[in-house]
Structures are given as C-alpha cells and as structure tokens.
4-carboxymuconolactone decarboxylase
Amino acid sequence: MDNARFEAGKKAMEELFSQEVRKGMEGMKDISPDLWDMIVSFGFGDLYSRDSLSLSQREIVTLTTLITQGAFDQLRVHLQAALNVGLSKEEIIEVIIHCAGYVGFPKAVQAMGIAGEVFKEDSQNHSK
Amino acid sequence: MDNARFEAGKKAMEELFSQEVRKGMEGMKDISPDLWDMIVSFGFGDLYSRDSLSLSQREIVTLTTLITQGAFDQLRVHLQAALNVGLSKEEIIEVIIHCAGYVGFPKAVQAMGIAGEVFKEDSQNHSK
Amino acid sequence: MDNARFEAGKKAMEELFSQEVRKGMEGMKDISPDLWDMIVSFGFGDLYSRDSLSLSQREIVTLTTLITQGAFDQLRVHLQAALNVGLSKEEIIEVIIHCAGYVGFPKAVQAMGIAGEVFKEDSQNHSK
Amino acid sequence: MDNARFEAGKKAMEELFSQEVRKGMEGMKDISPDLWDMIVSFGFGDLYSRDSLSLSQREIVTLTTLITQGAFDQLRVHLQAALNVGLSKEEIIEVIIHCAGYVGFPKAVQAMGIAGEVFKEDSQNHSK
Amino acid sequence: MDNARFEAGKKAMEELFSQEVRKGMEGMKDISPDLWDMIVSFGFGDLYSRDSLSLSQREIVTLTTLITQGAFDQLRVHLQAALNVGLSKEEIIEVIIHCAGYVGFPKAVQAMGIAGEVFKEDSQNHSK
Amino acid sequence: MDNARFEAGKKAMEELFSQEVRKGMEGMKDISPDLWDMIVSFGFGDLYSRDSLSLSQREIVTLTTLITQGAFDQLRVHLQAALNVGLSKEEIIEVIIHCAGYVGFPKAVQAMGIAGEVFKEDSQNHSK
C-alpha cells in the first residue's frame, strides 16, 4: 500500500461522503482489499485530490458520466456528495436537464426521480 | 417553427461555435429540416440558453457525456466549443483524466488524443 | 410554456398510457417542472405527434431503443403502451427476439421476462 | 452446417442486400467460416426469416438498435437494406428523429448524416 | 427444433448451472418457446459447446462482457457458473479488478459487491 | 511519480506491445504527462502486473471488454498484444464468436474484420 496516495484518498472521501456512506463503502475491504485500496488510492487519491478542477466541478463530471452510463446506484451516492461539496439543487437539476438532450429522456427521467428522493432525504436530515 | 426558441438557439450556437463549424452543421437542413429545427430550438434554444449553469459548466457536462458514450466526432467540435466559452486547456485535460476512473482508460485515451489535435489547431489559429 | 406543443404532447400521452400511468409520470412536476414540460412538449408533442410513422411503428422504435440501452424500468411502461396502441403480443415478442441478434441474449432475456409480466397483468385486467 | 437454416438465411440476405454488399459480407468466410455460418444461419436464417414482423418492420428494429448502440458502419448497410425492403426515405428519417429523444442528439445527428449520404448514392444509382 | 443443437445446449447448461437455476431459466418457455429454443440451441449449443476455449475461459469472457454492459442480473448467475466450471474466487476477483481499468470503477464496484454475495451463498451451501 | 509502480508498468508494456506500438503510445506524454503516468503506473503497473491471472487470460478480458464497448481502435492494438503473449489465432477468433451471443452480431462482425487485418499483418511480419 502506498500511504500518501491512500491518505489523500481518505481525505477526499471525507469531504464528499457522510460517515455512514463511507462506512458502507468500506464493506468492499472484506470482499477485495486490493480493489478497496485502488478505489481509495487511485479513484479518490489520484483523481479527486488533483487541482485544476474544484470538487463541485468534479461532481458535475461524475453525475454526468453516471447518468450517461446508467449507473443509478452510484448516482444516488454522488447526488448526496454533490450537495455536500456545495452544488445547489438547482444546479444538479440543471445538469440532469442538460443531459436529456445528450443521452435521451429515459436516463434523464430516471436520474431526476432519484434526485427527487435524495433531495427529500436531505431536507429531512436538515430539518431535524 | 417556433421563432423565439429557434432564435435563442441560434444565439447560443454563435457563442459556442465558429462560423465555419456552424456552416458545416447547417448541412443538416438539406437532409432533414425538421431535425435541424429540433437541434437549434430544443438542443441549443431550450437547453444551452437556460440559466442555472454557465456555458462553461454546460460544456463540462457535454464533454463528459460525449466521452462516456464514445461520441468522438461530436467531441472534437465540443472541445473547440469548450475553449471558445472559456474553459482552459488545463481544465479540459482534467475533465478527461477524471473520466478515466469512471469510464475506463480506452475512452479517456481516445478523448485525450483528440484533445491534443484540437489544442494544436487552436494554437496554430491563434498564432496566425 | 408553449401551449400548442404541450397540448399535442398531452393528447399523445392519452393514447399511449393509462390514466394511472400518466398520474405516476406527473410526479415529475414536483421535482422539476421544466423537465416535465420538456417531456410533454418535446418528447410527446414534438416527437410522438408527428406523422410519417404510426404510433405502433413508433412503439417498435421505442421498445428497441429501450432494450438496446438496458432501460428496463421505462421498457415496462412502453410494453403496456405498445399493447395500447395496437401491437399484438406476438409482434412485441418478435421485436425482442429480433433484438437478441443485435444486442445479445442478456438484454433480450431480461426484456422478455418483463414482457411476460406485463402480458400477465394485461390479461388479468381484461378478464376483470 | 445446417442446410435449411443456411439456405433460409441466404434467401433473406438476397431480399435485403445488393449483390455487391453480399459479396463484401462474404469476406468473413476467409477469416472465420464458423462466424459466417452463424451470421447466415442464425442472424438471417433464424431471425429475419421468421414471420410475425415484415422485413420493413424488422429494418425499423435494426436501424433503431444500430443507432442506439452507435454501430454506424453497420447502419450504412442497413439504411440501404431499409430502402430495398420498401421503407420510404421519409419513414427512415422519422425513425432517426424519434430516436433523438431516446438516445440523445449526438447519435441522431451522426445517423442522419449517414442517411443523407446513403440517400444520395441511392438517387444516383436510380438515375443511371 | 434442431435436436442435436438443442441437446448440446442442454448438456452445456448442466455443466454450468445448478438444477435450481436451470429450472428458473426454463420459465422462458412459457413466455416465448422460440426464444427459449434459441437460448439453448444457439447460446449454449452453438457457442458454449464449441472447442478452442475451455468452459472456464468462456466464463472469463462472459463475466467480462456482462460487467462491461452492466448486465448485473445475468452476472449473478454467471458468477455461480464460473465457480461451477472451476474458476477460483481469486481469479474471478481478478477479472473484476482488471475490468476496473477498462470500464471504470462504478461497474467494477457493483460487480464486486455481487461477487461478495455469491461467494457467501456458495460457502454456506458447501458448509451444509 | 511513483517509481516502482511506473517501472512495473513499463515492464508489462514491454511484454505486451512491440517497440513501435509503445513509441506511438508515448505520444500521450506530450499532451498530458499526468494521464501518461496513470496509464503506465495504474493501468499496466497496478493491473497487468498483478498475479492471479496470466497475461493471456488478461488479454481475454481486455479483448472482451473492448469488443463489448465498441472500442475498436484500442482493440486493434490488443489483438496484436494477445498474439504477443501467446493466445493463438484460433483462441482469439473464439473469444469474438463467444461475444456474438452476448453483445450481438454487429460488434462481433466488426471485431472479426479487424482481427482478420491484424492476423494478416502478423503473418507478413513473420514471413519477412
């Protein structure tokens, strides 16, 4: 294991995800510790920790690619991450609408339905 | 034809594309005037002309979805558009690198190769 | 909002979907009224309301693209729509079989399983 | 080799493709005679030779799946096949326009550009 | 029906799948006996029964294509098949890790999660 | 830069690719040295250099994912790599045939055409 890259990844994950989400993600360690190391060190350490794009710009990229490839389970987690790093609900909705013209309505509609659920949970958490 | 939407679309296209590119796009009118109207009125009028995201944020979405779906002919045109609306080469390269983790290296490598060509042409145009 | 396009879209949706399905779709209005307007005005108003193809031919296109892109939630709704606009179960099954050669068996098998469920519900509704 | 299936496939191919196109396809025999047999016996013999859908309905399915998966080389050949089995240019254009809402504009635009080329070649052949 | 091809397919399926899984697959017969025949005769008879690759090499191909196209329901069944024909858990995990670089982390992560579940069920079955 | 990972990657690339191909790949260094480092260190260093699968098993995975995602430019390079690490032409053809049932004929046909070209070049190089 490459400690600097892994530590950078862990730090990026703390900015993006709640403790509960990170706990869920760590389940990967039990199945494949090597893939877990790559996710943290490469995915979050090498990629999210880079300069040149802000975390909110990175989440625009992430939301768009997940919508385009129909990866809706991961989209749910990154919709919350997008809110966490400062994208507004209006901006997230706008990313999905823009995608409609590029990937077609079926994926945009499915993404918007999930966004509606995530926004609702987020409001409930903040009103507690 | 719905004039306000079409005019909004034409205006957005002027901000995004050079006169030469727009001329090439208009070839669509001869094959299907109806699809041409939808491209301008819906694609650029209804989508690109909206508020909530800047044109440079919209191009981040567009580049990402084109890389993810492997639409490399359209990517070439939008790499130039991304430069035109103010994204730096560094930011564009960063979008492609971020995508590598989400769509895999083959598409990221192909996208970066095309970006290299577009950046070279762009430098030559500006040094004239 | 562009009333003629929106009204055309609503009329097409009435031919395609049951009242219950349309009611479910309208949930989109609460999350993003703008995407809802695009779905109705562009998706159903501009596209489904056009001439040149019948609604049953349009549903052949729709089923095929949804199977190909693996959009199985939307497929369920359009399998019912295909029956509503007059495609026979035999024709729908045949579309899925034809797709097997073009998109591979995994997606064809998944589509056929959903078709089996939709056909069963449809028979139960008609025997009431 | 299964003669009845292979002969049925050859017959379907004669209805779909010009002699020149079939000659080109046969190049597969030199690389992999087994894949060639599957293409003819399964692809055209088992699938295109079935009842329940007409050849022109089958080409609507084929064009749609090829546009959706971005298989533009194969699309070119099947645009010509679609004309050969009786779809009008207007109907083909309409299939592509309908797809725009389901797969996004980039693939629809690319498909329409190829359709424009195929229609032009077709007109030149008929005016000879 | 073509008996030799169908019988070859049934034999291959017996090597790949448990009786319970095959029973579930046969549900297809009630919806579309023709697609069922193609699955057995073409999918398993023509393809899996061929020489040149072992069944465990074939399952490497199958797992990879299912991960790449995001066909996760089918992946579950073939993860079990991969164990049945002799791939080790370590080799299966390695296929998924290799895919991460080619299709991106979202699909690799989803595949690994399902593999974790299948491996757990498999251990429980063997400890009975 | 992380020297051990980069060196491992360079070593794997020497086993997979001819000097000429590696020279072409290095063009990436001029466009984005960071992506180049990731390709070598992560793609080839972290992934191809791992145990648990042989290089020829890894190329089966690679060919399959490239065919499935339609990445035909990268496929060409990896068809040659597959021969270099010891897969026979017969095994490569068999991977493509197996894919036909999982991704459909259009992509299998396109892959086989490219394989035919690569095999021809390979024979010419060996007869020199």
Q: What stands out?
A: Chain E has two domains: 1-52, 54-128. Chain E has a mean pLDDT of 96.
